[in-house]
UniProtKB/TrEMBL annotation:
Record's protein name: DUF1275 domain-containing protein
Transmembrane segments annotated in the record for this chain: 7-26, 55-74, 86-103, 166-183, 189-207
Superkingdom, taxonomy of origin: Bacteria
One of the Pfam families matching this protein, by short name: DUF1275
Record carries keyword Cell cycle: no
Alphabetically ordered keywords of this record: Membrane, Transmembrane, Transmembrane helix
Statement: the UniProt record of this protein carries the keyword Cell inner membrane: no
Amino acid sequence: MKLKLQRWIHLNMAVIGGFLGGFAILNHHDLFGSAQTSNLISIAMDAAGHPDSDLLFRVIGLGFYIMALALTVILPKYTKIPMKSFSLAVDAAAVLIIGLLPSDLNDFIALYPLFFAMAIQWCSFPGADGFTASSIFSTNNLRQFITSLTEYICSRDPKALLKWKFFGKVLCFFHIGVIMSCLSCRHFGISGAWICFLPILSGILLVQAEARRVALKHALGRLYIACRRASLLSGLS
C-alpha cells in the first residue's frame, strides 16, 4: 500500500511537471521553465561576448532557481514545514500567477514563477519505488527507461524489468501532462494554465492520504510500545 501510494504521488507530480513544462514551451518561444541547462549555456556564451539583451533576465531567473533549491535544504532543517505540501502550494501559486500574466511580458520574467516552483518540486518529490526519478524533465528518465529495458533483454534480470516499468510510467504520465497543457492552451490561451489546478488538487489529496497513513502508523507504534511496557510492568509486579 505504501509503495503504491508513493508511486501514484510521483506519477501525479510527473503530470504537473509535464503540464508546466509544456506550458512554458508553448507560450514562451520554446523556453523550458523546468531546467537551467540552456540558461547556463546562454549565460556562459554571454560571458564569452555573445550579444544577448536578456542576460540580466537570465541571471535573475537562475537566481530564483538557485534560491528554490537552497530552500529545500533550509526549510526541513529549521522548520517543520512538510515539503511535499509546501511544493504543491508553491505549484498552485505559480499556476495562478502565470495564468494572469500579460502575453506580451518578457518570456524570462514570465517564467520566474515556474523556475521557482519546479526547482522546489524537483527536490521535494525525488522518486518512488526505490528509484530516483525527476518529475519535471525527462532526459534522465528516458536514459533509465532504455538502459533498464536493454539490461532486461540481455540478462533477464527481474529488477531491471521493474525499473523499466517504473520509468516507463513516469515518462507516460509526464507526457500526458504535456498533452493536457497543449489542449488547454489551444482552447483557453494563457489562462489554460489553470487547468493544472486539477492534478495539483489530486496531488494534495494523495499527499494528505500519505500523511494520514504515516500518522496512523506512528500512533499504532506508540500504542504497541505502551502495551508492551504495561505488560512488562505487570509481569514484574
